[in-house]
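Troubleshooting: if your tokenizer reports a length mismatch, compare your output against this known-good record of 153 residues.
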Amino acid sequence: MKKILNYLEAGWALILKTSKIKIKKQFGLPIKPIFINFLVTYKCDSRCTMCHIWRKYKDNPQLKEEELTTIEIETFLKTNRDYLVDVKHIGITGGEPLMRKDLIKVIKNFRKYLPQAATGFQTNGLSPEKVGKVYREVKKFYPGVNVSVSLDG
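Known-good structure output:
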């Protein structure tokens, strides 16, 4: 019986949340994000057959100059802190996020400005030593960090 009540409670909560979103849309009110996948680079050291993100800079080298800097990411987070207050999870992705030399600083900024959000980064796992090094460094200031490794490449 308790299990059924839990399912009903979860279903009711979902209905309420969905209704809130529909009402906000109807009245043109902002809908704040609860999940963010934040792409930090198009650089990638893999050449997966189903993904061609690595071609982005190869085909358009000038795009490398448009990649957000650590300061620009921090400014974005600081400026939009009120709008991002409901974010529950941040997935730092790319390309291959580990190809950013300042990835640890980027993660620190997310933790600083959105401490309520679970934070993790995705990787292709081609550099296990680098994954371990970054993970150990991030774990020092954020023990709950998540690391996802793609099985596709």
